[in-house]
TrEMBL record:
InterPro entries: ASHA1/2-like_C, START-like_dom_sf. Pfam families: AHSA1 (PF08327). This is SRPBCC family protein. It comes from the Bacteria. Residues 16-139 form the Activator of Hsp90 ATPase homologue 1/2-like C-terminal domain. Belongs to the AHA1 family. The lineage of its organism: Bacteria, Pseudomonadati, Bacteroidota, Cytophagia, Cytophagales. CDD domains: SRPBCC_CalC_Aha1-like_4 (cd08897).
Length: 141
């Protein structure tokens, strides 16, 4: 089954911080390197972003022990300031991130096409862990 025929996966978190701070921390590489990893034994040693529609971006995700790393690369397809970021991954999968002001803070919702190598629950868990790291980073800085 091709990934385009699988149901999209959604993860979300509510961040107790102003919208502008949440937006910047999510999209600026100088912040991304501080939160874009799923567990404490991983890190993001480098990130770069051409933050515009059609712009290419990349985050290097690596095990801290040096045993494994990979480049997470994408091209922005839609940016609506302080509201929406959409991009296409190198393998054609699509990702959409929504930023919504709520009474409890800024709700960040990521919806993405699953890949076919790993179970859906594993993918959802990994993306949720990264989003949880994002929340923790923004609220502590």
């Amino acid at each position: 089954m091709e990934s385009t025929t699988k149901a999209k996966i959604t993860v979300e978190v509510t961040v107790n911080a102003p919208l502008e701070k949440v937006w910047t921390a999510f999209n600026d590489p100088k912040h991304v390197i501080n939160w874009c990893f799923a567990s404490d034994d991983w890190h993001a040693p480098a990130a770069e972003s051409d933050f515009r529609e059609g712009g290419k971006s990349k985050t290097v995700m690596a095990a801290k022990d040096g045993s494994f790393s990979f480049d997470f690369e994408w091209i922005y397809t839609k940016i609506k300031d302080l509201e929406t970021v959409e991009y296409a991954l190198g393998d054609g999968r699509e990702v959409s991130i929504q930023f919504e002001e709520t009474a409890d803070g800024i709700k960040v919702t990521e919806t993405f096409d699953p890949e076919s190598e790993n179970p859906v629950e594993m993918q959802k868990g990994g993306w949720q862990a990264i989003l949880d790291n994002f929340k923790k980073y923004v609220e502590q800085n």
